[in-house]
Design a protein that fits this description.
The protein is of the alpha/beta class and about 625 residues long. It contains 20 helices and 27 strands. The longest helix is centred in the last third of the chain and has 23 residues, at about 455-480. It is globular and about 80 Å long. The protein starts with a strand and ends in an 18-residue tail after the last helix.
């Protein structure tokens, strides 16, 4: 997830663009840049790292105060204002990057330009067919400067512009060549009176001013200047001039829509209208799953999914010969690994050991050079996980990293890396990073099963086809969140909350209990359902809530018996399942998830428990984004 902005009007664009990017830093923090049309050229300045680095590069002045110093922000904003003295122009675009293709660097930063610098673009999203397009352009003599998928787009626009002699027609032609998701902002030296922008599956907002107009990935970047906006629709374009905006569909036909007036206050708008980042990120899971999955599922000519392709991960003979998979991680990432254990054993028929990273390095583990070693870390900087990774490499194991952060230490030190494309996660308690980690594990297990011959082509195709339905099913659960909110309003003062499940659902119970205790400070534990009677049932009383997760039809009777046992001792029972009829009379509340196979249900069953944790925190007056004593990335042991 990246942030893009644009300005056209009578004012100096440079400080406007940079200060607008400041409002979008949560969308990307790997690099930042601007492109501004000056008297006779497009001037591009871009730099790796925080937005502050861009202001310092343009002005030559440094922010000397520490981040804890109240003077820090004043110095930073003063430098942004001074950028107007160095780059003067009335039209420009800007970008703050969260890297996907190509490591964070000055060169890979946006904006990107064509070979003669006459066209510049910024991009949010992923161009799935960029490799094919890049190869064709290189064969025609185009020289690429970066490793990004975005640079392909600007060279395609350049090629089309030479043919069409019209920048709008050139952009219109190119967007029909692109596969994937994108929001684009385009400026051209020959057309200094306009900005062209478009969107497909990535957000873009057009701000309407007086004698000036704007584009941005999100409303916070615009509120200093205007509250009247067009929310650009799916497969729509806009051409911005200083005094008006023209809107079009992807067929080039003019469209008319009414602007919206933004009523949000600044604090809420920075969260996209959500009260907290946690609930915003819960709602971003359908997109995160789609973005993580789409580039990796291979389809035949008929559109049927047939295989998994990991550009970043070389699934070679080492997978065919592996004796087992060893997974290590911490916290939420560890729970994704527990789901993976069941997935690899069931789908790929591989032996799997799962370890908490903080324990792994100290227990003199038995490792074999034919093992596949998987580490999972949202940040890619988790200290215990890094230590486990290094121990595995010292023992000659192939190490695969699953992480959300391009260029992180884990991604650099592993032999192969698979990126979850969840976008930056701001809330401390992980939600969308977890589900995208689980998704990557499923895809890995399917690929491993095909490589090892334990999963037939037909079985793999059916699993991949069902995976493709998961984002929509997650959205269905989110659309019914009021049921969970109402249930939370009756249960948020319970003394004890126990999560129970069997098989995959047992793994989901672990993550569910952690999420609740993290953000609401309610005492919660998870048990394999069959273990209740081996001790924990002694704790059951009328102040206990038991959440039973049940997605395996063959085990409905078993977990139903557990529910009856705890109800008989006064507990309140919620069941999360595809089949509410199987638990009639056994639960106080049922939350029905969409129909799905038990193998992949972990992507759905966790969503209601994330919502429940969030609502309990809010009802208890706790900020779910910043739980006490916790940090987003644990970089010390």
């Amino acid at each position: 997830m990246c942030g893009i902005v644009g300005y056209i009007g009578t004012k100096n664009a440079t400080p406007i663009l940079i200060k607008a990017l400041k409002k979008l830093e949560y969308r990307g923090y790997d690099s930042a840049g601007i492109a501004v049309y000056t008297a006779d050229e497009i001037v591009v300045r871009k730099v790796k790292g925080a937005l502050k680095n861009l202001g310092e590069k343009i002005t030559g002045e440094l922010v000397t105060a520490s981040k804890e110093d109240p003077e820090y922000e004043k110095q930073e904003m003063a430098i942004y204002e001074k950028t107007a003295d160095f780059i003067k122009g009335n039209v420009g675009i800007g970008h703050t990057r969260w890297a996907t293709h190509g490591e964070p660097s000055d060169t890979n930063s946006h904006p990107h330009t064509n070979m003669d610098g006459s066209i510049s673009i910024v991009h949010n999203g992923i161009i799935e067919n960029y490799a094919e397009l890049k190869a064709k352009l290189q064969a025609e003599g185009v020289v690429f400067q970066s490793q990004t998928d975005t640079e392909v787009v600007v060279h395609l626009i350049d090629k089309a512009y030479k043919e069409k002699k019209d920048i709008f027609k050139a952009v219109l032609k190119v967007i029909h060549l692109l596969e994937g998701s994108y929001a684009l902002g385009v400026i051209c030296k020959d057309y200094p009176d306009r900005i062209i922008c478009c969107r497909k599956e990535s957000p873009l907002v057009v701000g309407i001013g007086s004698g000036e107009n704007f584009i941005a990935s999100d409303v916070p970047a615009l509120l200093e200047h205007t509250r009247d906006v067009y929310y650009l629709g799916e497969r729509e374009l806009a051409v911005l001039y200083a005094d008006h905006v023209d809107l079009f569909n992807f067929e080039g036909e003019r469209i008319i829509k009414q602007p919206s007036h933004v009523e949000w206050d600044m604090a809420a708008a920075e969260k996209g209208g959500y009260p907290h980042f946690m609930i915003k990120e819960i709602h971003e899971q359908p997109k995160g799953l789609t973005d993580t999955m789409r580039p990796r599922i291979v389809k035949d000519a008929s559109g049927k999914p047939t295989d998994v392709y990991f550009e970043e991960n070389k699934m070679d003979e080492s997978w065919r010969n592996a004796k087992r998979v060893v997974i290590t991680a911490c916290g939420t990432a560890y729970h994704a690994g527990v789901v993976a254990k069941y997935a690899f054993e069931k789908i790929a028929r591989m032996k799997v050991d799962i370890d908490v990273a903080s324990e792994f390095r100290y227990r003199d583990p038995i490792l074999d050079k034919d093992d596949i070693f998987i580490v999972v870390s949202q940040s890619g900087e988790t200290a215990d996980t890094l230590s486990a990774l290094r121990l595995a490499k010292q023992n000659g194991l192939k190490v695969v990293a699953i992480t959300n952060c391009v260029g992180s230490t884990v991604s650099r030190e592993a032999d192969d890396v698979i990126y979850t494309l969840a976008g930056p996660e701001i809330a401390v308690a992980s939600t969308k990073a977890y589900t995208t980690q689980v998704l990557c594990m499923y895809m890995l297990a399917i690929k491993a099963g095909k490589l090892r011959g334990t999963l037939s082509d037909d079985e793999a195709s059916k699993l991949l086809a069902e995976l493709e339905t998961m984002p929509e099913k997650v959205q269905q659960i989110l659309d019914g969140k009021d049921i969970i909110q109402k249930f939370a309003s009756k249960q948020f003062n319970k003394d004890k909350i126990f999560y129970i499940g069997r098989q995959f659902d047992s793994a989901t119970s672990l993550e569910s209990a952690l999420k609740l205790k993290e953000v609401s400070y309610m005492h919660s534990e998870a048990f394999a359902a069959g273990e209740l009677k081996h001790g924990p049932i002694a704790l059951i009383d009328p102040q206990t809530l038991v959440v039973a997760i049940s997605s395996e039809p063959e085990l409905y009777d078993k977990i139903g018996s557990n529910m009856v046992e705890v109800k008989a001792r006064g507990a309140t029972v919620l069941v999360i399942t595809q089949n509410e009829k199987a638990f009639e009379g056994k639960a106080d509340e049922v939350f029905k998830i969409p129909e799905c196979s038990s193998t992949l249900a972990s992507l759905l069953t966790v969503i209601p428990t994330q919502l429940f944790a969030y609502y309990c925190a809010v009802l208890r007056g706790i900020d779910p984004d910043k739980p006490r004593n916790l940090a987003k990335s644990v970089t010390v042991e």
